[in-house]
């Protein structure tokens, strides 16, 4: 989030707003004599002197290293930076009235780089707009900004420090497990069609589905509940899940995502994380926000960290501490964009102590950066993380083979996957993982997943075929599908068993219905005669009972409520 000036300010206006005592002090530093009774004339004389290239060059050469770096940083960021971003590294300006200015003469002995620029007329206090809120800023006004840029000052390069020794242990995830675990989730939702209660928490339902898959050994990635909550948030953020009536299942976009190649699926998940507002990294850092969340912008924080990593070297082990310090130096307001470090309170969920203030930056922002690196950035395959001998995360590495997924200018070499599918007589189906995401999604309608590495193993049994029948997939669909993915190599004994199972399964049906019951036949006749209610009624049972399809029940109940009829749900016959 860049800072914008609340009002345009040029050098003449900036000088005119300063007290006479400060104008005289600035003039003495620039060795200028101000003459004339008119204040406007003295301001013009001072502004013209400050713009002299020779004088400017000479003054800048005599600045301290910190002030010269700050001047370059201001010029490099458009001439305006919120003051709170500079306070930790460069200091703040004392607020001195006319008497104190005469007594202290701060232009002769500035206390920090910010004062050095302000009390020498190179930068001026103003207001900056950050996220719609005005905050104090430091600005180099035009035309002085143009003159400063012409000096060619180089801002201090913020670099991440490489490790001299590789880490003791490496935690890595290519990002493939996230895609595979979401495939398992989408299969589960399609095959089981879980229902959500009115007002229910969809994110919690999806997370619980992932927990159930983990407990069954179906997931490939880490089973930590923070990761599962992250996967649920990403799936919802990528619009892979929808609710129809009360039934939760894969969305039409999920099928497009499954059909896409691995890189496109990866980028969709990355963008979903970057845009996700309903999930954040604070719990990963053992922190919880106390009170109002309106000032917390997780999306902005992710963008800042990714922007720094986009300039970091690839395939090199880098110090985590150097990443944290780089953010602290450049964007100390990572999580608190208004720079009010004391008003923003969090609770340490381990010690239960409140933490706030700039002095807690390492515990708050530093810990959140570490959580972001070892959490989402590693789970999505952007980084690998390194542990020291004490199993503490101290480093990270950006693999070049994955840079094309998130860095501009890095082309990705695409190889055409050689898909292999073998179908055995006993119903074992082995299929390559690479390039078969949607095929395996279809296969699991009537084949049970067993295990997975480079090849995924599925088993076709009578029970799995019966499950396919219940979802509307008949042997007339299964056999051509198997012949296609196996290149015609489906053993005849298996085909014979499929036909036999299909023959038995196709003779008897059972459909789940809801029984709508009225207190008397007159009420049921009234409902059956209602033109808006009648389409929701399926098959009549008797004068006071009618069957209703489950998927239509919620809409029917809503129609009845609109007529003042409240349906009492009875779970059993007692």
Brief overview:
It is built from 23 helices and 20 strands. With 574 residues, it is an alpha+beta fold.
Termini gap: 61 Å
**What sort of overall outline do the alpha carbons produce when their principal axes are compared?**
elongated
- Order of strands, main sheet, comes to 1-3-4-2
Strand content is 5-15%
Q: Catalogue the unreliable spans.
A: none
Structural class of the secondary structure composition? alpha+beta
Overall pLDDT metric: 88
How would you sum up the major sheet? Answer: 4 strands, antiparallel
Counted by DSSP, the helix tally is 23
Number of DSSP strands? Answer: 20
Give a description of the structure.
The longest helix has 19 residues. The two termini are 61 Å apart. A hairpin with a 5-residue loop joins strand 12 and strand 13. By secondary structure, this protein is of the alpha+beta class. The radius of gyration is 33 Å and the shape is elongated. 43% of the residues lie in helices and 14% in strands. The strands form six sheets. It has a four-stranded antiparallel beta sheet. The chain contains 23 helices and 20 strands. Helix 11 crosses helix 12 and helix 16 crosses helix 17.
């Amino acid at each position: 989030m860049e800072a914008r000036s609340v009002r345009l300010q040029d050098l003449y206006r900036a000088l005119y707003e300063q007290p006479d005592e400060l104008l005289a002090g600035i003039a003495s530093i620039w060795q200028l004599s101000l003459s004339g009774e008119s204040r406007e004339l003295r301001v013009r004389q001072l502004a013209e002197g400050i713009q002299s290239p020779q004088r400017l060059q000479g003054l800048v050469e005599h600045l301290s290293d910190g002030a010269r770096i700050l001047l370059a940083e201001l010029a490099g960021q458009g001439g305006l930076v919120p003051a709170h971003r500079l306070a930790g590294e460069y200091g703040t300006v004392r607020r001195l009235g006319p008497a104190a200015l005469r007594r202290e003469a701060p232009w002769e002995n500035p206390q920090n780089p910010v004062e050095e620029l302000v009390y020498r007329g190179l930068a001026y206090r103003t207001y900056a707009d950050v996220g719609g809120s005005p905050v104090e800023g430091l600005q180099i006004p035009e035309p002085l900004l143009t003159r400063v840029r012409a000096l060619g000052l180089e801002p201090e390069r913020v670099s991440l420090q490489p490790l001299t020794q590789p880490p003791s242990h490496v935690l890595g995830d290519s990002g493939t497990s996230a895609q595979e675990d979401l495939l398992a989730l989408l299969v589960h939702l399609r095959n089981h069609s879980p229902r959500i209660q009115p007002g229910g928490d969809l994110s919690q339902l999806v997370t619980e589905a992932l927990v159930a898959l983990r407990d069954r050994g179906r997931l490939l990635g880490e089973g930590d509940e923070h990761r599962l909550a992250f996967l649920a948030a990403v799936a919802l953020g990528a619009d892979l899940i929808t609710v129809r009536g009360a039934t939760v299942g894969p969305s039409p976009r999920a099928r497009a995502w499954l059909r896409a190649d691995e890189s496109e699926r990866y980028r969709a998940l990355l963008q979903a994380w970057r845009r996700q507002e309903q999930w954040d990294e604070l719990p990963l850092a053992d922190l919880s926000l106390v009170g109002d969340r309106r000032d917390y912008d997780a999306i902005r924080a992710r963008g800042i960290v990714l922007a720094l990593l986009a300039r970091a070297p690839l395939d090199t082990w880098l110090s985590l501490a150097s990443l944290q310090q780089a953010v602290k130096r450049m964007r100390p307001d990572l999580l608190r964009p208004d720079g009010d470090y004391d008003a923003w309170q969090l609770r340490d969920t381990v010690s239960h102590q409140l933490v706030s203030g700039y002095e807690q930056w390492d515990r708050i922002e530093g810990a959140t950066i570490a959580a972001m690196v070892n959490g989402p950035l590693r789970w999505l395959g952007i980084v690998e993380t390194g542990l020291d001998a004490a199993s503490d995360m101290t480093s990270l590495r950006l693999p070049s083979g994955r840079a094309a997924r998130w860095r501009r200018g890095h082309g990705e070499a695409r190889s055409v996957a050689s898909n292999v599918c073998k179908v055995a007589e006993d119903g074992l189906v082995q299929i390559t993982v690479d390039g078969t995401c949607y095929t395996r999604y279809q296969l699991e309608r009537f084949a049970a997943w067993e295990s997975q590495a480079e090849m995924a193993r599925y088993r076709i049994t009578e029970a799995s075929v019966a499950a396919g029948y219940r979802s509307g997939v008949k042997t007339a669909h299964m056999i051509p599908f198997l012949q296609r993915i196996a290149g015609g190599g489906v053993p005849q004994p298996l085909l014979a068993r499929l036909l036999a199972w299909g023959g038995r399964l196709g003779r008897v049906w059972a459909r789940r219905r809801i029984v709508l019951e009225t207190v008397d036949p007159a009420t049921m006749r009234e409902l059956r005669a209602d033109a808006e209610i009648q389409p929701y009624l399926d098959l009549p049972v008797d004068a006071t009972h009618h069957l209703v399809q489950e998927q239509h029940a919620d809409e029917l109940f809503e129609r009845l409520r609109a007529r003042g009829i409240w349906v009492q749900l009875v779970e059993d016959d007692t």
